[in-house]
Amino acid sequence: MSAPERIPPRSVTPHELLAKGELTVRGQVRDASNAVLYCTVEYEGHSAACVYKPVAGERPLWDFPDGTLAQREVAAYELSEAMGWGLVPPTVLRDGPYGPGMCQLWIDAPDGEADESALLALVEGEEPGPGWKAVGYADVGEDRTALLVHADDERLRRLAVLDAVINNGDRKGGHLLPAADGRLYAIDHGVTFNADDKLRTLLWGWAGEPLPEEAMEALRRLSADLAEGSPLAGRLAELITPAEIDALRERVAELLRTGRHREPSGQWPAIPWPPV
Ligand SMILES: Nc1ncnc2c1ncn2[C@@H]1O[C@H](COP(=O)(O)OP(=O)(O)O)[C@@H](O)[C@H]1O
Ligand SMILES: [Mg+2]
Q: What's the gap in Å between 237 CA and the centre of ligand 2?
């Protein structure tokens, strides 16, 4: 008698796993401003680690309507996918043990510890040094300042463009997750898509420089994908307001018009504090 054939589990995408899997809370991430739960999802023999941020655990903010941060995180993922750069880990809106919230694939740091030191640094003097771009001077205590720099890295450059598109109000160093596979992921996109200019980021190193051709191409594609009645516009309509979608289209159009990386508007603190 031959051994019964084992049927391998059907392959599922991370998106499907996150959306349909059974969600189990394993712990809480400390030092987060909102409730951030470390979880596992299991579905048809597959499992993965993820974060679950229930809407009920969102801290109210003066400049964003209450209970909308989870949707903004999913909208940021949609835009990252639409630009084709895969910078935001798969993120879905779903129900969980503490009610509706966002669920995002957990990204393991190569050695288990997040380390942004290859991406960000504080240096003495006025020159960023080869391979680095200057952001600005930061107060480092004892009446001293140091030059904040970030790596001249194409992944960060794409992220600078994505942040300008999604109007990210809080791009800190801790939100950059270099993964074991050499990719760079970006997280924490709750304060995005405001209709007013809120761009606050560390990634000002290319401010005013011409956008690379790959960014222009991605923006042209995105502009077409955002047309009224498109599938992407339909999905975004479930996540952010019509005024916010119009402002998004306007930001994309403006980047295409200038063909340059965004510069600080001067109306809003341009660098988050603390930067890391
Ligand atoms: N997808 C993820 N993969 C790995 N770590 C994550 C992920 N999402 C969040 N974290 C960890 O949880 C912390 C808090 O998450 P964050 O998105 O910053 O929450 P908050 O909304 O409270 O600012 C992060 O600094 C990071 O250490
Ligand atoms: Mg955070």
A: 25
E-only strand ranges, the chain: 22-28, 37-43, 46-54, 91-94, 101-105, 120-123, 132-139, 145-151, 176-178, 184-186
Is 204 a member of any domain? yes
Q: Quick check: is 5 in a domain?
A: no
Task: Print the domain residue range for 52.
Answer: 14-258
* DSSP-assigned beta bridge partners for residue 260: 210
Q: Which ligand is nearest to the CA of 178?
A: 1
> Rounded to whole angstroms, how far apart are CA atoms 175 and 94?
22
Ligand 1 in reach of 104 Cβ (< 6 A):
yes
DSSP 155: H
- Counting the structural domains of the chain, the total is 1
Q: Tell me what percent of the residues of the chain surpass a pLDDT of 90.
A: 76
* Among 170-179, 191-200, 208-217, 251-260, the least confident range: 170-179
Query: What does residue 138 show for φ and ψ, rounded to 5 degrees?
Result: -120, 145
Q: Does the structure show a pLDDT above 70 at 1?
A: no
The rounded distance, in Å, linking the Cα atoms of 179 and 95 is: 27
pLDDT digits (tens, 9 = 90+) for 64-111: 999 999 999 999 999 999 999 999 999 999 999 999 999 999 999 877
Cβ of residue 128 lying under 6 Å from some atom of ligand 1: no
- Residue 90 lies inside a defined structural domain of this protein: yes
